[in-house]
Amino acid sequence: MKIALGIEYAGCHYYGWQKQDISPTVQEVLEAALSEVADEEIKVICAGRTDTGVHALQQVVHFETTSQRENQAWQLGSNAKLPKDVAVTWVLEVDDEFHARFSAEARTYQYLILNRRARPAVYNGLVTWESQELDLERIKQASQCLIGEHDFTSYRAAACQAKSPLRTIHKLEVNNSGDWFLITICANAFLHHMVRNIAGVLMAIGKGKKEVSWAAEVLAAKDRKAGGMTASPHGLYLVDIKYPEKYIIPVPDSLINKFGFNLQFH
């Protein structure tokens, strides 16, 4: 049987999603919990790997197992064994053709910035802090050139192993409410550090360090050296994975609902 799961996690204390020599990782603790519930070794495949310190409101994974368990048993059993900062939010039995990564049609990330003089305390590690004032309109204007299909070589990590730098951004919105700025990016797929590099360029423009045209100039250069600093992972959230409707994958809450903010972004 093939099972799909929705996973929520705070990435502050993890070396990213992928299981590796360094520990702990989200995949590592999830597989350990599922293996205990299944009473057999479980290996999961995710929709998209996240880096050290990056969070997820909806990571989607699938795994195959010979163990017969009710959906509720998978969820409650795993959550009882997982660390407090990782949780299974839903469980769904899926067809054999479903693949968490390759069946996905689009992915959405959100980048949350606290823009004020004082550093965050309650939200430390969960948001990116920027003490210099950001100009919303400058950021919005600069972001528009990135929408559509482009060669995002300048916006990916130098060590990115993707075969092609071509990606299609379906939506890029920048909103704010008081001291809070929220960048929402939906694309067919993302390159390594792509969202954080976009955020770094937009924040530099928002602070007035670069002209609005700089975002387009960086894109056209097709050279990572033309870009700015990679923004902090703390404000980055994987918030949704879009699949064909036939799979009936649950739609997650928004970032704002998850935080419990009573904010009106505009």
Give a quick account of the main beta sheet: strands, pairing sense, barrel closure.
10 strands, mixed
The end-to-end span amounts to 44 Å
Q: Could you name the CATH homologous superfamily of the largest domain?
A: Pseudouridine synthase I, catalytic domain, C-terminal subdomain
Residue runs with pLDDT of under 50 for 5 or more positions? none
Q: Give the fraction of residues assigned to helices.
A: 10-25%
* SS elements, strand count: 10
What is the average of the pLDDT values?
Answer: 93
Tell me the Rg in angstroms. 19 Å
- What kind of assembly state do the chains in view correspond to? single chain
- At the first level of CATH, the class of the largest domain is Alpha Beta
Overall 3D shape: globular
CATH topology grouping of the largest domain: Alpha-Beta Plaits
What is the count of distinct domains?
Answer: 2
Tell me which CATH architecture of the largest domain applies here: 2-Layer Sandwich
How are helices and strands ordered from N to C?
EHEEHEEEHEEEHHEH
The secondary structure category is alpha+beta
Please indicate the percent range of residues in DSSP E strands (runs of 2 or more). Answer: 25-35%
Q: How many H/I helical runs?
A: 6
